[in-house]
């Protein structure tokens, strides 16, 4: 997984900075959020994550030594808007050659291609061994696409839907039972959920809560690891003196996480690469999530930014908890380091 995300990190940090610039401009009132300039800036960021399945398909196909263009076509096959919207809104049961499946929007997801592309790469290698050279240009692309895309839609997609629905119902029930316990679990596991795209199942609940009551506690607790990611990034800037590439990614990642709550460059650049950093984030995020629930912080807008902190309910104690979380995560990196023996071997 690390090898898949590493080539993508610089551009991920770049689009994060563009998004941070957009939020800063509108936050200070220099432009309306409906201005064409802001639409263009937001479009740069949104396009990257909308087409993330294609980008990751290319990166993973290259790493697995399979044809990157077929890999890109597989990712694109999950995003074609005409049939996706038609099947999502279908009033009758959706099926592929009689096999029923649940259609969903795969934009901005990671989990489907992480499962599908290795399967495609295996098919690709097997076909190269048995298909004569004269027929490879026709047979290999056809079989790879015909097998992999439907497999993701019919098998991987429904599993993700089921997991997401179960997760959303479980979180709702847990918050009703004990917000503190729920905040700890959500804060500790949020970045893991984001990595596999399962967090999207929770977003509709958050939107509904804000629409009905004007605020939401779930996303306030889920934002806890954002503070931890800030601390990890700062800690790595100080600690990773022998890794200039890692430091440059973290330096670029600090701005978008501060101004837009964008943690992906930190997640894919550090947390998935170094198990210690993921552990620090989960521990600090869990504590911060529990304390966020304890002080009663609730969000009223759907994005995290230092410019939007004051829009939250009980934002002062919530911000104090967040800052302490960032400091704790930074100290853990500085004191205990960020590389384990296995990380050094893998590198």
Give me the secondary-structure topology.
Blueprint: H1 2-5, H2 9-27, H3 36-50, H4 52-63, H5 68-77, H6 81-88, E1 95-96, E2 99-100, H7 111-130, H8 133-177, H9 179-195, H10 203-213, H11 218-222, H12 224-239, H13 244-260, H14 264-271, H15 275-295, H16 315-336, H17 341-346
Antiparallel strand pairs: 1-2
Would you write up a description of this structure?
- The relative contact order is 0.11.
- The protein has helices at 2-5, 9-27, 36-50, 52-63, 68-77, 81-88, 111-130, 133-177, 179-195, 203-213, 218-222, 224-239, 244-260, 264-271, 275-295, 315-336, 341-346, and strands spanning 95-96, 99-100.
- Helix 2 packs antiparallel against helix 14, helix 8 runs antiparallel to helix 9 and helix 12 packs antiparallel against helix 15 (275-295).
- It contains 17 helices and 2 strands.
- A two-stranded antiparallel ribbon has the order 1-2.
- Helices cover 74% and strands 1% of the residues.
- By secondary structure, the chain is mostly helical.
Major sheet attributes: 2 strands, antiparallel
Query: Residue ranges: pLDDT <50 for 5 or more in a row?
Result: none
The arrangement of helices and strands along the chain is HHHHHHEEHHHHHHHHHHH
Distance, first to last CA: 13 Å
Shape call: globular
The count of DSSP E runs of length 2 or more, i.e. the number of strands, is 2
Strand order of the largest sheet: 1-2
**Secondary structural class:** mainly alpha
Q: Kindly estimate the percentage of residues that lie in beta strands according to DSSP.
A: under 5%
Gyration radius, rounded: 21 Å
Count of discrete alpha- or pi-helical segments spanning 4 or more residues: 17
